[in-house]
From TrEMBL:
Species, as recorded: Glossina pallidipes
Gene3D superfamilies with a match to the protein in the record: alpha/beta hydrolase
Lineage: Eukaryota, Metazoa, Ecdysozoa, Arthropoda, Hexapoda
Record-linked Pfam families: Abhydrolase_1
GO cellular component: mitochondrion
GO molecular function: carboxylic ester hydrolase activity
Domain of life: Eukaryota
Keywords: Hydrolase
The protein's name: sn-1-specific diacylglycerol lipase ABHD11
Length: 302
């Protein structure tokens, strides 16, 4: 028995249902087949739970290649990096929220025949993985959450909506070469984004098709239309029992995404959790890559 909301995507890819032994979870959620990469060491230990990593908003599995490769080699554990829906090479679809992205993780586990996994998520991906652990605790061994909180989000989340709106409205002539096209996009984004680091990160997703048209690899319309959901995470996890498995939060001291004063509330949701503060911004896995990998390896190896 499958979930019955199945249709074809406009790009020709099929929406897949969650299988029957978790059908009670899926209601009307449409699960997709995410694009993913697998990293393995030369001597993988199949007794260790695989680690699935999901990136944040505007990111992709490509951003986690170095971390994924390093973790696989240091732990002899299979590591899978994914493109979340509406990002990278994964299908585009109107729905975009933690519930639907968690359903995509379930779908991936079925595809790869995984019964239980460890999970790592950054920012948007972190909220997806927190929901996944709370909703499907029997499928989760350990969880690592990078610089995001289940309690609140920073005030500058509104800036994300401005970035997406600017992306929607950028119009680059087809006869403009890629370097100049990036400059034009940069000029528009800088009007709403003061951070060069953020602009450079967003511009990684600008592409030029064979016919000369410029496009974003993200589904900008879906992300923009679902931005309000990012402010309602408390409603998303309301009523779910605490996840009692091991959880590690890795946060940036120079980031506003996790309020230290919220730690007691976070521990009410994840009672078996620990937190580490690194000298980093929101991209904690970039700013302190070696320490991030060290903490992750140590936590998963306990």
């Amino acid at each position: 028995m499958f979930c019955n909301r199945i249709k074809h995507l406009s790009i020709g890819q099929r929406l897949h249902p969650i299988k029957n032994h978790v059908a009670a979870y899926c209601s009307n959620i449409q699960a997709i087949d995410m694009s993913y990469d697998v990293f393995e060491s030369k001597n993988p230990d199949n007794n260790l739970s695989p680690l699935i990593i999901m990136h944040g908003l505007f990111g992709s599995k490509q951003n986690w290649r170095g971390v994924g490769r390093a973790l696989a080699s240091k732990m002899n554990r299979k590591v899978i990096t994914v493109d979340a829906r509406n990002h990278g090479n994964s299908p585009h679809i109107d729905d975009h929220n933690s519930k639907s992205m968690a359903a995509d993780i379930v779908q991936l586990m079925h595809r790869l025949n995984f019964r239980k996994v460890s999970i790592l998520g950054h920012s948007m991906g972190g909220r997806t993985m927190m929901y996944f652990a709370l909703k499907y605790p029997e499928m989760v061994d350990k969880a690592i959450i990078a610089d995001i909180s289940p309690i609140s989000i920073p005030g500058d989340i509104s800036a994300m909506g401005k970035i997406l709106l600017a992306m929607k409205n950028i119009n680059i002539p087809q006869d403009v070469p890629m370097a100049a096209g990036r400059q034009l996009a940069n000029a528009e984004l800088i009007k709403v984004v003061p951070s060069k680091e953020t602009i450079d990160f967003v511009l990684l997703n600008l592409r030029k098709a064979d016919d000369g048209k410029y496009y974003w690899i993200h589904n900008v319309d879906a992300l923009y239309n679902n931005m309000s959901g990012f402010t309602k995470y408390g409603e998303t996890i309301k009523g779910l029992p605490p996840f009692k498995g091991p959880v590690m939060f890795i946060c940036g001291k120079n980031s506003s995404y996790v309020d230290p004063n919220h730690w007691p509330q976070i521990q009410n949701i994840f009672p078996n959790s620990e937190i580490h503060w690194l000298d980093a911004g929101h991209l904690v896995h970039f700013d302190q890559a070696a320490k991030f990998i060290e903490l992750t390896v140590g936590f998963l190896s306990k």
